[in-house]
Amino acid sequence: MRPEPGQVLHFSEDPTITRFVPHVAATAQQPEAYVWALDHDRAPDYWFPRQCPRALAWVRPGVTTDHDRDRIIGAGCGERVHAIEYAWWEALRTTRLYVYRLPAGPFRPFGEPESHAHVATEPVEPLGPPEPVGDLIECHAAAGIQLRLLDNLWPFWDRVTASTVAFSGIRLGNAAPRPAAGHSPMP
Fold this sequence. Notes:
Blueprint: E1 7-12, E2 35-37, E3 54-58, H1 66-74, E4 80-85, H2 89-94, E5 98-103, E6 108-110, E7 117-120, E8 131-132, H3 136-142, E9 146-150, H4 154-161, E10 166-170
Parallel strand pairs: 4-9
Antiparallel strand pairs: 1-5, 2-7, 3-4, 3-10, 5-8, 6-7
Organism: Actinoplanes sichuanensis
Protein name: DUF6886 family protein
Pfam families: DUF6886
């Protein structure tokens, strides 16, 4: 489920999309209407049910300290970790997700200081029918990405964002509320 040269990807739980039309997403932080897609490196960020809150962290070569790698990712645990809350486990296990391959031509990189997505400002038609992604847990395992289950994402997220690892938080507004002050389930 990685894009081929000249392609970008769009993940969806809807297998019936025949044309992607620019729109302003409900969670958008900008007013422009876009069609959103991803490249090879960011595809794993979307191996989840759409509404699932997730905290993603990975090693930045030459930037991430050994201490932060061991503390956030885990000693001997690879280069990347994706964390979700226990409440989302069943949805992760049972969601049927599809990947659409789109022509890369109409898209441009989006995100500063480094691109985290690709956007188009014109309608885009898929290059073919969507492909089932398959078992989302197995996708993580096959890619060597650690999948971590937590009671609450916020203590982990706070440590991630204060570290030297690269990170992305998606749908965090759907996460459980922050623990009460003074209560932290993480050491």
